[in-house]
């Protein structure tokens, strides 16, 4: 039995195959009905059936996985004590007496598989005959051998897994792992080193590896290595190593640790070379970028500074302009030191606002005074910009302070000049208004006084025409008619001038006015002209009430209506349409005619006094539309027109709703 067990254990087969041969040997030599071997899975505290020989060879079933402490097998593992019974059918440790009776089982023997007090598994067997105590003594050395074999097999498996894991790790890491003897010589081929440097085994063996180090750094690396050997401590060096695939030297960090034997002597070194070339290049670019930034920041006229994002206003850098102006050092300004150059009346407000915006990573702007090295305060406009990375995360804050002392002084002076100018304009406007009022009064007076001699001229000329026409020749009668016509025209012009004067001088009261009433009054005033010209007047309702002066509004409507009937081509019936448009808080009244029209570049001109665009074709004084504009403006309204030659005209006035 022992010979067969030993043969199985040295066969080199897998664990299930070896344990199966052991179980079969037990069945054959001890005449057992069947024998089984379980191994302990410590992570789950479960006995797993690995081998079964005899009448039962299956590995599944209720006893395929047994918890420690359950069934007789689990209790043997729990107590680590063997069990022997020759009365299976009546033994309380047997879980199924009926099965034992049916199968004719008589005896059971179980033995824990242990090593140095640690349970690794259980061996058990059933027999249809009694078993002597010597069976247990025979199983003891057998289970010891199996235990040692299981432990060795597990150790081999752990070692193999570790080696496989190490190989897998080496295959995926970018580092170059290597090992040397106690002196630093390569004594076995370094595959990763060969792949990276392109050195063959003959080239990198012993100390040939130093030839892959950049010539300028080779001696320094050797010195650092010798120092680490003498100190028997961690080795670390930075140098450039030849990289065969890219045909260039790349920056590397080499690190190694010594391995000691049982006597405390260094037996070998294990190390890696970590490629830091890209990081080194990035660091160099960053250094150059920061140097360019500092050069630029030191040469701008503004004071500049940098603070860390998310902090409470802790500044870390200031440009030369800041330091020169304040007469301080970076160390004095860092952290919250910058507050020392702020004006005491403003520093609390400025600091609270600034620290809030820095903490929240928000752009900021403020104006406040800063003390210079001469002790004088100057005003600065400060702006802060949050700098973010590609993901949008705030990484730092850049700020500038622009001296605006002169600008503030200029703004102050400008404000003072503006106030003086406003007063001057107001005074001159008042003077001009008074002058205009006096002029209007003078014109009104002259116009009024001129009417008396004009009436005499008109009256006497008419008497001569009526009473002495037969005594006068044709030339004399023509002269009289021309005198009479001119006097009538002059009187009409004076009347219009008086109306224009009244429109500008008379006190008017604004109140709700019924527009239909004012329009009807205008129609009544123009009734004679309507009949003479056979004009067609269309009124579109509704016509909403507005805030106005009724007499002034009636005069405006009458003037617009009269013009609409007057300025039409010969042999054309005047057609006029009057309607209202809602403009929110106001109402726009429109009067559209079919007259000769007005060129767009003359729209403003027609509202001036005495302007007559068609004086040769149509009678008039050129004051009517001036009266319209003056009246509308006196009622806080607006006036305008839309017209083009040959397309008629649309005049409109806009007044506030009542």
Key features of this structure:
658 residues; single chain; 6-stranded antiparallel beta sheet; 24% strand; 5-stranded antiparallel beta sheet; 22 strands; 18 helices; alpha+beta
Can you tell me about this structure?
- This protein is an alpha+beta fold.
- The chain contains 18 helices and 22 strands.
- It has helices at 2-9, 15-30, 71-79, 97-103, 134-172, 191-197, 201-204, 218-231, 277-298, 320-326, 330-333, 347-360, 405-468, 474-505, 515-525, 527-533, 550-566, 624-634; strands spanning 34-41, 46-54, 65-67, 83-85, 107-115, 118-127, 176-181, 235-243, 248-260, 266-275, 303-308, 315-318, 364-371, 377-388, 394-403, 511-513, 536-539, 546-548, 575-583, 586-592, 638-643, 649-656.
- A 6-stranded antiparallel β-sheet has the order 3-2-1-6-5-4, sandwiched between helices.
- α1 (2-9) packs antiparallel against α2, α1 packs parallel to α5 and α17 (550-566) packs antiparallel against α18 (624-634).
The count of DSSP E runs of length 2 or more, i.e. the number of strands, is 22
Backbone CA Rg: 59 Å
User: What is the averaged pLDDT score?
Assistant: 87
Which regions have little confidence, pLDDT < 50, spanning 5+ residues? none
What is the overall silhouette? elongated
Share in β-strands: 15-25%
Question: Structural class, from helix and strand content?
Answer: alpha+beta
**Major sheet characteristics:** 6 strands, antiparallel
Helix content: 40-55%
Widest sheet, order of strands: 3-2-1-6-5-4
Number of helices: 18
End-to-end span in angstroms? 126 Å
